[in-house]
Each structure stands twice: as C-alpha cells, then as structure tokens.
Structure prediction request, 492 residues.
Amino acid sequence: MELFGTLVLAAIILGLLFLVFRKDSSRYNRMPPGPTPLPLIGNMLQLNLRALHESFMKLKETHGPVMTVHVGSRQVLVLVGFEAVHEALVQQADVFAGRAHSPVVDMLKLDFGLAQSNGERWKQLRRFSVSTLRDFGMGKSSIEGWIQEEAKNLTEEFRKTKGTPCDPTIILSWAVSNVICSLVFGQRFDYQDKNFIGMLSLFNENQRLFSSPFAMLYGMFPIFTKIIPGFFNKMLTNLNEIKQFISAMIDRHQATLISDNPRDFIDSFLIKMKQESDNPDTEFHFDNLHMTVLNLFTAGTDSTSTTLRYGLLILMKYPHIQEKVQKEIDSVIGQDRAPAMEDRRKMPYTDAVLHEIQRFIDFVPLNIFHMTTKDTIFRGYFIPAGTMVVPLLYSVLYDETKWATPHSFNPDHFLDDNGGFKLNPAFMAFSAGKRICAGEGLAKMELFLFFCSLLQNFSFRSKEDPENISLLPTSTTFVKSPQIYELMAIPR
Ligand code: HEM
Prediction:
C-alpha cells in the first residue's frame, strides 16, 4: 500500500512537472502527430542516442514522413524522405532557414558567428562570408593553385611512409585544414608546426565529443552537464584553447593591417569592422569574427578530411572501382602534370565515385538542426515560429524511391546509360535551401583535386582482405566517421 501511495505521488509530481515544462503547449497542439511522449523524458525511450537517424526512420513507419517527436520537453518536427525535406528547405525556404540551438551550444557560448546565428545577424554574416571567400578564390582558379600545392605536400607525406601501414587521419586533416588556413589566415602551416598539430588534435577530439551520446544527452537534459560534467568540461577546455589560437591570429592581423589591401578573411572582417565602427547595431564585432572563423574551421576541416578518409577506405574495399578511377586519371590527366578542375568534366566516372562516396557516407545524417522563423502551415499542420526542425538528410541520401540500391556503394547512381555524369536532386550531402553549406564550392574543389592527386600517385591497399573491411561508421549521433584504420600507400 505504501509503495502504491509513493507511485501515485510520483506520477502526480511528474504530471505537474510535465505541464510546467510544456511551455506554451496550446501553440503546439496542431503539430503533426507522433509517438506518445512520457512526462519529462518525452520519447527518449524510443530514441537510440547512438543512431538517432535510425530511430526516426523506425518511427516514420508508424507516424509518416512528417511527425512530432518529443526530445526531453521539446517538441521537434522531424522530416523524413526527399519530398518532405525538399518541401520545407526549398519550397518554404525562408520559413525553414532558422538555426535551432541545443542548450549545449548556448552553454558553450557558441551563439555568435555564421553557423549558429539567426535573423539579421545571420543574413549579414552569410552574405559577407560567402562573398569574401569568393573574392579570395573559393570556387575559382586562384584557390585551385593553393589546393594543388597542398596536394603536392600531401603526396610527399604519404611517400614518406614508404608503403608501410599508416593511419591517414592526421595527414588528411593537415592538408584540408591548410586550405582553410590560406583563406582565413592568409598562410599555411608546416606539417611539423607544433601549434598547428595541437590545434588539429583539439578539433578532432571535439568532433568526437560533439558526436558522442553524451553531447546529445546534454542537449536534451542540460542538468547532466552538472551530474556528469567530465565530457562537457573537456569540450569547454578544448574550445577555449582553440579560441586562444584564433585570438592570437586576429591580434597579429590587427597589428599589420593595411586598410585598403586585405590579405585574407580576417583582414576583410577587420576592415568591415572599421567601416561600421559608428553603427551601434553592427554585426561586425570581435565576437562574430571569432566565432565565424571557428565555424569556417570546424565546418571546413572535419567534413572534407573525413570524406577523403572514408573514401579511401571504400576504395580499398572495392579495388576494381579504385582501378577504374585510376584508369580514367591516367587517360585524361596522365602522370606528368597535377590534376586541375577543368579535368572534371572529362572524368564522369571519378565524379560519380566522389558523389557516391558523399551519398554513401552520409556525413551529417541529422543535418544541423533548423528552426522555423515564423508560424507556418506545413502539409495542413500548424507549425509555430521557433520550432526545432530535423530535416533528416540520411532519409534523403538513402531514400528508396530516389536511388536504385541505396544501401550499396554504387557509382551508377550518378551515371547515365552512356556513362555520362548524371546529377540526382536527392543528392543533398550539402543540404539544400538558404542554409545550404556555405563552403560547398570549396569542398567540391578540394575533394576532386586531393582525391585525383592521391590516386594518380598511389594505389591504396589494406593489410586486411577487402572482404573483411567494415564500412560501418564509428559514431553516428552527429557526424559519421569511419572506423580507425591503417592503409598502405603503394607508389604507382
Ligand atoms: C564534404 C564537405 C562538406 C560537407 C558534407 C558539408 C555539409 C554541410 C551541411 C550538411 C551543412 C548544414 C546545412 C544546413 O543547415 O541545412 C553545412 C553548413 C555549413 N558549412 Fe559545410 N560541408 C562541407 C564542407 C564545408 C567547407 C569546406 C566549409 C568552409 C568554407 C563549410 C562551411 C559551412 C558553413 C559556414 C556552414 C553553416 C552555413 C549556415 O549556417 O548558413 N562546409 N555544411
């Protein structure tokens, strides 16, 4: 009897807390249906924090492609499949262009800068960043030379391994990160530079921590940052060290700035700050500069280097595909000159393999979370302004109605009957709409030039039988990374 009384009391308290925590619930009661939530924990018991995208796919079987899932006390609109994601991000582009904040982002004070901001701040920072990066060569031939130079350094590093097994993680991060360094800091770093190596290790560690189930748990229940603080504190310490590195670079730029001759992204931002110094509402201030530089680094380094690393693993598993790419490289580029962007249109097979790598590895399965910027009607449901939205990229890149064999690595997904390159609108590795990746042009150049240079110079082999190579990712909460592996770069 005593136990019964305790249970009733607990249920009443949980029920009351649920009502308190369901802020402004009447505005949310015309959202699409979804699984029934429990008080406080919402649909936690139906969500696998290590593979949220798989949980959402399972829930879609019962609740359809547009559903409300309660993540803790928050109601989240989950969009599954090409049609729903395209309808939101492209057809209602302005409404779905907001960025939702997880409490972890707020606690880490990451709310300044391009990637996490909203409204006028985001518009100004996005316009400025994209046009400045373009001025310095993003997607144009000037940066092609930098990437070619970096690709040469990268092949030299691989050559030093003399075909013995090595983990390619850090080498690939160096090369990719140096391209962003050239654009943002106006300089590249030597691969032996201790500061640079240290900063990249911090980046890699934070990517791992952000993708761990702990980060997701903190996002749903911020109280856990107090109960299990270890992971959170580590993220914070790493972040502060990275910020110090960036601060030192900004100080150096300020000391040597010549107003009419910007050398790189930081100079351009400092000049804009000067021009707007009389505007009390300006978005061009140090907080936004620090965070935008950090965004470009974080978004630009991990994504591209992980794609290359995953791509090399896939090619070791499928040596016949690797050979076919090498044959195309040999016939179009040969061995006597560096690969160039204009080669791409003559290399449909290589282009198809690169697109298929991006589709298959599905780097950001949940996308970065969006938010509605105003009240809207979506498929007959009322979605209030400020609703968190998950446009599930996994469900687009693996949409069974859009791809012939979504679960297999199949370059034919991007080839027509004559062997020509064919784009598929469901290729949303960079997302779609107004928030589409700001570095898409740069990433595509890097992937093509690095990948072709590596395969022009080496054949990549594993110690393992290709049959036994696992392509399963290690962590899937936020980004997907391949298992740690070793490769042998055999000179051709
Ligand atoms: C293979 C490489 C890459 C992939 C797969 C990738 C993917 C993505 C995705 C999925 C988003 C979220 C879009 C959304 O919210 O709907 C994003 C945003 C972003 N990416 Fe990339 N990205 C890559 C490379 C880069 C590079 C090289 C840069 C650096 C110049 C970059 C800079 C950014 C920025 C700044 C954002 C935030 C944009 C905003 O909030 O307006 N990315 N990226």
